[in-house]
Amino acid sequence: MTRREEFPSELKGLLRTQQIIMAALPAGVFFFLLIAILDRFGGNQPADLFGIFTLAAVAYAAMSLVAQAVVFRMITGAARRRIAQGTWQPPGLTTPQIATLLKRTGTSGQFMLVNQLRLILGGAILDGAAFFVVLAYFLEGSPIALGVAVLLITALLLKFPTAGRVGDWIENQRRRMEEDQLLSGAGS
Fold first, then answer.
1. What share of the chain is helix, strand, coil (3-state, %, to 5)?
2. What span, in angstroms and rounded, lies between the C-alpha atoms of 75 and 73?
3. How many domains does the chain have?
4. What's the pLDDT score for residue 66?
5. Integer CA distances (angstroms), 30 to 26, 59, 68, 156, in order
6. Which residues in 116-133 are b (16+ Cβ under 10 Å) and which e?
7. In a domain, 32, yes or no
8. Is residue 188 part of a domain?
9. Given phi > 0 = left and psi -120 to 50 = alpha, else beta, which region is 110?
């Protein structure tokens, strides 16, 4: 599947699901941030630049950015190895529709579900950190917390799955799986 190829129609439903999830995560944080900003401006409360909540939230946000990247790599690497070995199973309960979809789409469908898992787990990590930072801003009014909240919302938006991005990611995972198989075959 290259950029020039049409995104497989069988996978468009899963893509739409991923898009809804990845739009909802930053939307919730954005509206909480909007409420916090309106509350701060309405009450003319003094800002606490380096309050304890702000420091804790910023530290948690930094750890979350790193953790999210590690989780993405761990999930992807483990799933790629299992798909190559033929032992990969979809996460959670598999419906008959998913089983049929996987039979029709092969590794593309498998990697599509892996991508969905990565997005949900990685997005949840960033979303939790973003809510914590917005709460710190709500309580203390620190512009640092406001800036980190905007950064995390932006990071979530940058994860938004488009057909081109997901198609490229799936193709990259297939290529890497083939390379891994060649390397493991050469070492035998």
1. 80, 0, 20
2. 6
3. 1
4. 96
5. 6, 20, 20, 11
6. bbbbbbbbebbbbbbbbb
7. yes
8. no
9. alpha
DSSP state of 124: H
Please report the pLDDT score of residue 70 as a whole number. Answer: 94
Q: How far apart are CA 130 and CA 61, in angstroms?
A: 7
What's the confidence (pLDDT) of residue 50? Answer: 82
Contact 161, 19 (CB under 8 A): yes
Neighbours of 9 (CB within 10 A): 7
What confidence score (pLDDT) does residue 5 get?
59
Residue 157 lies in a domain: yes
Residue ranges making up the domain that contains 73: 9-44+64-174
**8 three-state secondary structure:** coil
**57 in Cβ contact with 140 (< 8 Å):** no
- pLDDT score of 4: 45
Q: How far is it, in rounded angstroms, from Cα 95 to Cα 100?
A: 9
Sign of the dihedral through C-alpha 52, 54, 58, 63: positive
> Does residue 49 fall inside a structural domain?
no
Average pLDDT, consecutive stretches of 10 residues, N- to C-terminus, the chain (188 residues): 65 94 96 93 74 95 96 93 91 80 91 94 96 94 94 96 94 92 70
- CB-based contacts of 32, cutoff 8 Å, min separation 6: 131, 134, 138
